[in-house]
């Protein structure tokens, strides 16, 4: 695979750059682009699902974004060491499987990278909550913001 800088071992600056690069990539909602950040045999846990490899990752992402409409994501560096990064994230979306109600996912990811800076393991835990009364979207943080504007938003203290 082609190296994906920044490469481990990570520094505070390179770990932050890796996180923001992933945020930008995921906000494209393009499985073909996103899968390139992972090794061919990358191992994933996403909530209660376990799978590995590009084919399964692409299938998962296609299904995810078919169900999660108007998706917008923010990731923040939580911790790092050598070739490991932990990320805190929030994303908002309309759930096509639940009457297009607005939801926000709060979560943590743990990433492991190979020496070429390609992710070989992604472990994600997340919880969804309705946004507004019965998911009407009232109180959305990212309302009206594009993917390149989410970093300028202050996340409320009780949510960070």
Question: Main attributes?
Answer:
160 residues; alpha+beta; 3 helices; 21% helix
| Total of helices | 3
**Care to count the β-strands?**
6
Helix-strand pattern, N to C?
HHEEHEEEE
Beta-strand share of residues: 35-45%
**Order of strands across the main sheet:** 2-1-6-5-4-3
The secondary structure category is alpha+beta
Q: Tell me roughly what share of residues is in helical segments.
A: 10-25%
Task: Summarize the main sheet.
Answer: 6 strands, mixed
N-to-C CA distance: 35 Å
* Low-confidence sequence ranges: none
- What Rg do the Cα atoms give? 16 Å
Give the overall shape, derived from the CA principal axes.
Answer: globular
User: Please, what is the average pLDDT?
Assistant: 97
List the helices and strands and how they pair.
Blueprint: H1 12-26, H2 31-34, E1 38-46, E2 49-52, H3 54-67, E3 68-81, E4 84-95, E5 101-113, E6 119-130
Parallel strand pairs: 1-6
Antiparallel strand pairs: 1-2, 3-4, 4-5, 5-6
């Amino acid at each position: 695979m082609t190296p994906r800088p920044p490469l481990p071992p990570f520094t505070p600056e390179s770990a932050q750059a890796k996180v923001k690069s992933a945020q930008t990539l995921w906000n494209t909602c393009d499985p073909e682009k996103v899968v390139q950040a992972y090794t061919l045999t990358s191992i994933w846990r996403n909530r209660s699902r376990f799978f590995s490899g590009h084919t399964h990752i692409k299938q998962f992402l296609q299904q995810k974004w078919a169900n999660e409409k108007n998706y917008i994501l923010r990731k923040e560096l939580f911790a790092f060491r050598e070739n490991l990064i932990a990320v805190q994230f929030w994303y908002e979306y309309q759930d096509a499987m639940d009457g297009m109600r607005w939801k926000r996912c709060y979560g943590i990811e743990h990433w492991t990278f190979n020496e070429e800076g390609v992710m070989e393991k992604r472990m994600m835990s997340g919880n969804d909550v309705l946004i507004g009364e019965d998911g009407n979207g009232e109180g959305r943080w990212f309302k009206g913001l594009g993917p390149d504007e989410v970093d300028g938003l202050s996340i409320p203290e009780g949510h960070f």
